[in-house]
Amino acid sequence: MARKVRGSLTELMEFIFRKQVTTRGEIARALNLSASVVTVMVNELRNMDFIREVPIRKVGAGRNPLKISVNPGFLRVCGVDMSSYEISICIYDFTMQLLKKKNVLIEEKDPGKLLRKVAESITMEIERYEIAAVGLAFPGILENGENLVSSAIEELEGVNVLEPLRFRINVPTFTINDANAAVLAEFHARKKEQNILGLFIARGIGAGIMANGQLFLGAHGYAGEFENIPITEEMIFGNHELSPSLLDEFAEAINRAVHLLDPEKVVILSRRQVPEWFIGELKAIFEEKLTYPFNKSINLEPSVLKENPVARGAAIFAVEEHLKGVLKR
Hints:
Helix content is 38%, strand content 24%. The chain is of the alpha/beta class and 329 residues long. It has three domains: 62 residues, Orthogonal Bundle (Arc Repressor Mutant, subunit A), CATH 1.10.10; 124 residues, Nucleotidyltransferase, domain 5, CATH 3.30.420.40; 112 residues, Nucleotidyltransferase, domain 5 (2-Layer Sandwich).
């Protein structure tokens, strides 16, 4: 395949942001760009202070290759996990190192007052950390990234959550579903896989889909609304005994999704690390149902993330959306 003679700065920066550390050669291969195009684009990003280049030490003759990494101080971003009982606000630098985390209890029942309290809590951190963008992850169906059609936060059902937040928060602000945020964080942490089906267990089961390296939202943002299976985080973290029929129902639903999406990995996600006993029992039943040779290699695994998957994913989403506006191509 012929190398492209023009590339997207946004696509390149998103690649570097995910990899965190890469080389010009790796960029050329991954994005199918000529070496000369990569040089021009990397130089442009470096001159804008997005990235840094330092020589890689090597043994032997020849010119040392350059290691490309994001500039940690270029921006700071805020990721917010809007669970049904508290707000988790996390501040990250450009390398996605956690700088601060604070939790705020949700007590307001009026939608306007609730969103105002959220905005005020975030604004305090914006001023302190000079935050460039904010991402908020909400439980439930988020239509077109704006309207909460249904949600575990009952006070916000039927409310356009994005408009009042953008009105009160004076930096670019974006919203995302919590399951989508969690799988986006998993995608960035894993570095290699391009196709991931993430199953997020909270007050029910939601799904996030990474397809060919892109978060798949569907035409209206509904993609990933998983089947109505009554398994909750309280059940798996409270050591409740799950009936074999319920686990079998979950495994069968995963199997149907696997046939539809053909992922490389199926990852079980939650706000906390899912217990090994649950992963083990579900994995055993799921693997029995993989009857076709082409899907025998699909693994069901726990998340590689240790903490804050939803807030982290919301922050990553905010960075990616912010980059599109800044780079514009």
